[in-house]
Amino acid sequence: MTEAPAATSLVDGVLHVRVSTSRPGNPLDPDALLAATATLVDVASGSLDAGAVLLHGGGSNFCAGGDVRSFAAAPDRPAFIRSVADAFHAFLRGLHAAEVPVVAAVRGWAAGAGLSIVCHADIAVGGPGTSLRPAYPGIGLSPDGGMSWALPRIIGRARAHRVILTDAVVGAQDALAWGLLSEIVADDDEVLPNATAIASALAAGPRPALRAARRLLAASAESGLDAHLDAEADAISHLAGTPAGVEGVDAFVEKRRPDWTVGR
């Protein structure tokens, strides 16, 4: 697998984002994420017509974490690592603010920052060779990228504490059973094509409805049931008056395939 020619590219409504470099191990690519952050701002504002985001690696691994060699070479390590963390977090904030479904093609290792990124995907596709690991304790550092916030919400408090504190390796089958991966394909070479197909189907679907569903899912962990029921009622009633909502209901009644490009 060769490195993508650009950090981001828009293909058939899917924003492809390369999160790691093609260097050995495929470490996090801060420059690529900086470019992706700017592009995600355009998605959030509506100036870039993307219906889904596809996250993938620059080689045989999704992302093996931060570039530790650059950490070691920095004259002021705390300041340098803070700048890397801030840029990384800006990317993750942009990913959430874009309010479109996020699909991750998790081939090979997702370690450190790579695991953090997986935690922010709506759908994560892995293969038999997929492995996930916190990695931070191994270099004497604590998690970033929201790992200590997201992982307990995904796999539960007890598992998250054990995984992070013991730097445990989570194999593909456990990752699937615990909810870190959404599915496992039969061959590692099929991870990216499968994830791309999912992202393309989402981008071709009812985008306003998917955005609303993603907002509701994101809010569900922090909202009470009463307030969340009101939010759901507000969302579904609003969507019923949008072109996509009208088209979806009418197509169902008329027994035809809906045209989700209506109103875009």
Provide the fold topology.
Blueprint: E1 8-11, E2 14-18, H1 30-45, E3 52-56, H2 68-73, H3 77-97, E4 102-106, E5 109-111, H4 113-119, E6 123-126, E7 131-133, H5 147-155, H6 157-166, E8 170-171, H7 172-178, E9 183-184, H8 191-203, H9 207-220, H10 225-240, H11 243-253
Parallel strand pairs: 2-3, 3-4, 4-6, 5-7, 6-9
Antiparallel strand pairs: 1-2, 7-8
Helix pairs in contact: 1-3, 4-5, 5-6, 9-10
Task: Describe this entry's structure for a reader.
This protein has 264 residues and is an alpha/beta fold. It has 2 domains: 8-203, Alpha-Beta Complex (2-enoyl-CoA Hydratase, Chain A, domain 1), CATH 3.90.226; 207-253. The chain contains 11 helices and 9 strands. The chain has a 6-stranded mixed β-sheet with strand order 1-2-3-4-6-9, sandwiched between helices. Helix 4 crosses helix 5 and helix 5 crosses helix 6. It is globular. GO terms for molecular function: isomerase activity. This is 2-(1,2-epoxy-1,2-dihydrophenyl)acetyl-CoA isomerase. Keywords: Isomerase.
Attribute tags:
264 residues; 49% helix; single chain; 11 helices; 3-stranded mixed beta sheet; alpha/beta; 2 domains; globular
Classification by helices and strands: alpha/beta
Task: Enumerate how many helices there are, as a single number.
Answer: 11
Shape: globular
Taking all Cα atoms into account, the compactness measure Rg is 19 Å
The oligomeric state is: single chain
Proportion of β residues?
5-15%
Strand order of the largest sheet: 1-2-3-4-6-9
- Assign a percent range to the helix content: 40-55%
| CATH-derived architecture of the largest domain | Alpha-Beta Complex
Quickly count the domains: 2
Low-confidence stretches: none
How many β strands by DSSP? 9
